[in-house]
Design brief:
This protein is 52% helix and 13% strand. Strands 3-2-1-4-5-6-7-8 form an eight-stranded mixed beta sheet, with helices on both faces. Helix 1 links the parallel strand 1 and strand 2. It folds into two domains: 168 residues, Rossmann fold (3-Layer(aba) Sandwich); 104 residues, 6-phosphogluconate dehydrogenase C-terminal like domain (6-phosphogluconate dehydrogenase C-terminal fold), CATH 1.10.3660.10. The two termini are 39 Å apart.
């Protein structure tokens, strides 16, 4: 098994580490846009060789795309135009609807398996790659019926090797759920960090008073803007819906505090506590 990873940062690098240690493949080639990151991925042993996109496509049995979603469609079309019948390509992007819509009529569509491993950290780049990033997490495979069964089987085997649990969804259903749960969490964190930085000018006070609650809530604000800005734009249909609801809830919460409605405020938080029944 020969694997090519196009985009060797946190996600691609972490996948490479675990696939190699599990013996899933005998050869891992890397493709990247930054010469510095390519050299670092090679130095860290994440990949065996750095090659061109063309060579990666020629050599690999499985091609994994882990690039930002704003360039993912072009990269995927580039691969599908050149892929051989025995090869499989998958991606690990956080949005799926726009990608699948863009390639749905491509003659090699069935060699592509759309997937989204729900794993990551706030760090980025090859140095951020870690062992076990995907273990015990969920991976969503979208529109599997439109992919060749052998291609799906290979990608499923890869994710099982990474220790993931598999779920299956329609691509646009995936994007809706991702916006309502994952993407809004990142937006909340970015906005919270921006708010604190605007109101609190004393950096020492931030350091001294930032307890566990603040650190855990704002952690996602350390995430890469280059990665997340395209995700927000690509999934704006569903994001705008959930952001409107979030803003309404925030205004309501503000009014309860402003009008000293202590009991209503307590009940609001008690209702929110129901999330414990889901996230135990």
């Amino acid at each position: 098994m020969k694997v090519a990873i196009i985009g060797i940062g946190l996600i691609g690098g972490s996948a490479a580490k675990d696939l190699r240690s599990a013996g899933f493949c005998t050869d891992i080639t890397g493709v990247g846009r930054s010469a510095k990151n390519c050299a670092l991925a090679l130095e860290l042993g994440l990949v065996d060789r750095i090659v061109s996109k063309e060579d990666a496509i020629t050599e690999a049995d499985l091609i994994i795309l882990t690039v930002p979603v704003n360039i993912l469609i072009d990269e995927l079309l580039f691969i599908l135009d050149r892929i051989s019948p025995h090869q499989v390509v998958t991606d690990m992007g956080s949005t799926k609807g726009a990608i699948i819509d863009a390639i749905k009529d491509h003659p090699n569509r069935r060699q592509y398996v759309a997937s989204h491993p729900m794993a990551g950290t706030e760090n980025s780049g090859p140095a951020a790659a870690i062992d076990g990033l995907f273990r015990n997490k969920v991976c969503i495979i979208c529109d599997k019926e439109n992919s060749d069964s052998n291609a799906v089987e290979l990608v499923e085997r890869m994710y099982h090797t990474l220790g993931m649990r598999l779920k299956y969804m329609d691509a646009h259903q995936h994007d809706m759920h991702a916006a309502y749960i994952s993407h809004i969490s990142h937006i909340s964190s970015f906005v919270l960090a921006a708010t604190v930085l605007e109101k609190e000018k004393d950096e020492e006070a931030i350091l001294e008073m930032a307890g566990g609650g603040f650190e855990s809530t704002v952690r996602l604000a350390k995430s890469s803007p280059d990665m997340w800005a395209p995700i927000f734009h690509q999934n704006k249909q569903y994001l705008l819906e959930v952001m409107d609801t979030y803003i309404e809830k925030m205004y309501h919460f503000r009014n309860l505090i402003n009008k000293n409605k202590t009991e209503e405020l307590r009940q609001f938080m008690a209702d929110a506590n129901e999330i414990r029944k889901i996230l135990k």
